[in-house]
Design goal:
45% helix; single chain; Rossmann fold; 313 residues; 11 helices; alpha/beta; two-stranded parallel ribbon
Length: 313
């Protein structure tokens, strides 16, 4: 069976490719401008632009499965860029999947827990893409699975490891609402296990499945202070209310638009850091026989080893 992984140079895509190779799959990786950090000789890499359907048609032809990881994953930026990549790019891939009768299409989406009213471009465009996939599957033969991961961390993770670590090292971090928001930690190996299980499981077809490590007990305060300890920094004492954090975040978005100043915090981040909604993985257990193999303590030990080996700490 041949799998195409889009976003093959990214954190999730590259980890997934390694796991697929170990599972015995024939793998093709779609890359855009960034080359993979570690080239695997067993992988057929192809360069293409998902926003240009003609460039990806020959890449998707003759594969059995498509796992769509490519996206612009940011919590701020021009709306049209998110729409072009996360919506139109996904539509192009789906068009090709339908034309070439792909056996299963796996879409990496985003937990929708942080707000009933989606106010950021990333969550908005992921939701629009999800709706499009579901509607197309009703009209045409498109076997799909939508996977919604939590906060994916582990070795090589930029968003939920390096970004907060660097903020801590620069003393540019504060807890929001005392850091009591739930950290929906999702170790990268657990996520890739779930994605591969969704390829194999007939029961998963046509389903939206949330994936985390299944533990709703850890807070952002605990996680961020673990990173602070690894960085040799004192416990984070700074704190602000959600309303104050949102005001500062919205101000940063304005400054970014006017002067290209990189935000220290964004409205999306505030909602994630203050989230109190628990996520259940019972559906994943039932449909995928999913059981997270790496618990939080083991995951953090692995992160520490990687950070030290790469001289980040």
């Amino acid at each position: 069976m041949k799998c195409l992984v889009t976003g093959a140079s990214g954190f999730i895509g590259s980890a997934l490719i390694k796991k697929l190779i170990l599972e015995g799959y024939n793998v093709k990786g779609l890359i855009h401008n960034t080359k993979p950090k570690n080239i695997d000789e067993k992988v057929e890499y192809a360069k293409g632009d998902i926003t240009n359907i003609d460039s990806i048609k020959p890449i998707i032809k003759n594969v059995d499965f498509v796992i769509h990881c490519a996206a612009i994953v940011r919590d701020y930026g021009p709306k049209h860029i998110f729409e072009e990549i996360n919506i139109n790019g996904t539509k192009n891939i789906i068009t090709c999947c339908i034309e070439y009768k792909i056996k299963k299409f796996i879409f990496l989406s985003h937990l929708q827990y942080e707000s009933n009213k989606i106010t950021n471009h990333y969550s908005y465009t992921k939701k629009i893409a999800e709706n499009y996939i579901i509607e197309e599957s009703k009209k045409k033969d498109l076997p799909f699975v939508i996977i919604r991961p939590g906060n994916v961390y582990g070795p090589d993770a930029a968003t939920w490891v390096l970004r907060p670590l660097k903020a801590i090292q620069k003393n540019r971090i504060a807890l929001i609402e005392k850091g009591n928001g739930i950290f929906h930690h999702t170790y990268i190996d657990n996520l890739t296990d779930a994605i591969i299980a969704s390829l194999k499981s007939p029961k998963a077809t046509g389903q939206i499945i949330d994936i985390t490590d299944g533990d709703n007990n850890y807070t952002w305060k605990e996680y961020l202070n673990l990173l602070a300890k690894l960085a040799g920094k004192p416990e984070i004492k700074k704190n602000m209310s959600k309303s104050t954090a949102l005001f500062i975040a919205k101000l940063f978005i304005i400054l970014n638009k006017l002067f290209k100043i990189e935000p220290w915090v964004t409205p999306m981040a505030v909602r994630i850091f203050t989230n109190q909604e628990k996520i259940s993985i019972e559906k994943a257990k039932k449909l995928l026989n999913y059981e997270p193999k790496i618990d939080f303590k083991t995951g953090m030990r692995n992160v520490e080893v990687w950070l030290r080996n790469e001289n980040y700490i």
